[in-house]
Write a structure and sequence with these properties.
Layout lengths: L14 H13 L7 H12 L1 H25 L10
Length: 82
């Protein structure tokens, strides 16, 4: 990962983020100064923010589908759970 080599022998997808973060860490006075670059690098590696956003979108779509289904069934019956 930090070597710069990707799985296919090319430059790794996150290598540029790593270089930016590494340069910042070598030049900064405090590590918190590089927090945004670290966050970008980790997001490139793990996609955690992307997955969280996808999950929120999926849950909202499901909520809207349930609401439309309940409305089509004739009302807001709180007795039925599914």
């Amino acid at each position: 990962m930090a070597s710069g080599w990707g799985i296919a022998g090319n430059k790794g997808r996150c290598y540029d983020f790593w270089i930016d973060f590494s340069e910042c860490m070598s030049q900064c006075r405090e590590p918190k100064d590089c927090a945004f670059l670290r966050e970008d690098y980790l997001e490139c590696l793990h996609h955690s923010k992307e997955f969280q956003r996808r999950n929120r979108i999926y849950k909202e779509e499901q909520r809207k589908l349930r609401a439309a289904s309940q409305k089509a069934d004739g009302g807001d019956s709180k007795d039925s759970h599914h």
